[in-house]
Amino acid sequence: MFPASDPWNQPVDVSPVDANSAAILARIGHCYALNRIPNHALLDGSICDIRHAIKEEPTAAALHYVPRVARKSSTQCLCGRELAMAIRKGLVLLAAVVSAQGAFANNIHVCPTCAHRTIQSAVNDAAAGDLISIAAGRYEENITIEGKGLTLQGSTVPGRPTEVAAAGRGPVFTLGTGVAGATPESIVINSLTITGGNHTGGTGAGGGVQVRSGAYLTMDSSVITQNVATKGGGVAIDAPGSPPSTITRSQIIANSAGLGNFGGPGGGVLVGRGSTAFINSCIITGNTSTDGGGIFADVNTSLYVAESTISNNISRAAVDPQGSTGGGGGLEVAGSFSVQNSNVSSNLALGPTGGGGMYISMNAGTVHQIGGSIIARNDLRTSPSEFGEGIGAGVVANNTDPVQQILTLTSDYIVENQEFGGLWIQGVALSSGNTTVQDNIGGQICSSADGTCT
Predict the structure, then answer these.
(1) Distance of CA 57 to CAs 13, 65, 281, 350, 374, Å?
(2) Angstrom distance (rounded) from CA 381 to CA 388
(3) If DSSP codes are grouped into helix, strand and coil, which group holds residue 193?
C-alpha cells in the first residue's frame, strides 16, 4: 500500500531511539487517549481511565506497518511507563505514537444543532487528519474533498443511518483535485448511505463517489444506492498512480451507468485506467450498465475481489462506435484481476459481447485468477433489437494479445449457467485445479478455435 521508503515500512527493531523521546513521552502523558490511525493498526479513540486499549485489525496488512510488535492479546494496554519501555525496546514504532497523537487532532461534529450543519462546511474547516462525525439523519448536498486527508464517520446506531443525498447534479462525493500527479490524500468514509448522485456531464465518472487524482478511498460499512453516471454509477475509481482504493463490508445496490445511446461501463463500480481497487466482503447487486453491470475494470488496472457477492446485475447492449457492448453482466475486466472466495450468480448479459457472469479481456503482462468462487445461474438473452447474442453465460475469456494468455482456476464451481456454455475460451490456455464445470446449458468448456464444447 505504501512505497518501500515510507516510514511505515521501515524496520523498528534496529532503529535508534528518537533524541526527543523523553519530551514526546512527557507530552503524551501518563495515559494519553490515542486515536485511530486509518489503514494501520487500530488505536481505539475512546477515553481511558488508567489504561488505553489497543485494538488490532485481523489482517496481515494491518500488522505490516508495525512489524515485530509484542502482542499479548486483542486488548493489550500500554500507558505511561509501559509505553515508554515499549518504545525504548523498539517494540512500538515511535512514529506511530507521534502520528497517533496528531491523528484526529480535531473531531468536528455535524448535526442539525451543531456549529456545522452541513458536511461540506465541516470539510472546509477541517485540517488534514481530522475526523468528521456525522450524526444520523439526511443531508442533501454535494461534497468535494481535495488537498487533505480526512475521515468521515456516520452513525453506527441500528435503524438510524446517516444518509447523504445529492442536492443537485453531479457526484454525491468528489474526492481529489483531479490534477494529474497531485499528491494522493487518504479519504476514509465509514457508515454512510450515499444516494441520489447524477453525474452525466463533465467527466461523467462516479454518481455516488468519484475518486480522482489526488485521492484514494477507504470505505467501510457503507451503502451506495440509486446513483447514476455516464460511467461508474455507484463508485468510479479514476486516480491513476494513487494507492489502492479499498471498499469493505459495503453494499453497492441499484446504481446505473451509460443511460445514453452510446452507453457506459461499470454500473456498480468502475476502475479507471492506471487505478487499483480492493473489494472485500461486499454485496454488489441490481446494478446496470452496458459493460460490466456490477464491476468494470479497464485496461492497465488491478482489481482484487474477495469474499463478495456479485449478483443480479445487468449489462445491456447499446450502440457503441468502438465495438460490441452488453458484456460481463457481473464483471468485465481488461487488466490484472483476482476473484477469490466470491459468488458471481444470476447476472445477465444482453449484448453480443457475452459473459453473463464474467467477461475477461486478456492482455500481455496481466494476471487472471479465479479461486474458491461460485459462478452460477448467469444468463444471456437476445434483446428484441439488432444486437446479437453473446456466448458463455458463465465466463468468457478472450485473449486480445498475440501471445497466448493463461486463465488460472482453482477450486471453483462454474455450474448451472443458462445458455451457450459455462466457460468460453478464445486464444486462452487454462490452468485449472480442482474446478468443477458442469450442468451448464449449451456445453461446459467451449473453444472458439473450433466451436466445440466438452
Answers:
(1) 22, 12, 15, 42, 28
(2) 9
(3) strand
CA-to-CA distance for 352 and 369, rounded, in angstroms? 24
* The C-alpha cell that represents 21 in the structure block: 523521546
Three-state DSSP class for residue 192: coil
232 closest CA partner among 186, 280, 275 = 275
**Contact indicator for 453, 425 with CB cutoff of 8 Å:** no
Residue 348's SS3 state is strand
pLDDT digits (tens, 9 = 90+) for 243-262: 999 999 999 999 999 866 56
- Contact (Cβ atoms closer than 8 angstroms) between residue 232 and residue 252: no
Where in the chain are the domains?
7-102, 134-447
Q: Which amino acid is at 257?
A: A
**Strand partners for 247:** 219, 279
Distances (CA, A) of 187 to 6, 155, 256, 375: 18, 17, 24, 33
End-to-end CA separation in angstroms for the chain: 42
Report the chain's mean pLDDT, rounded to a whole number. Answer: 80
Each residue's pLDDT tens digit, 204-252: 999 999 999 999 999 999 999 999 999 999 999 999 999 999 999 999 9
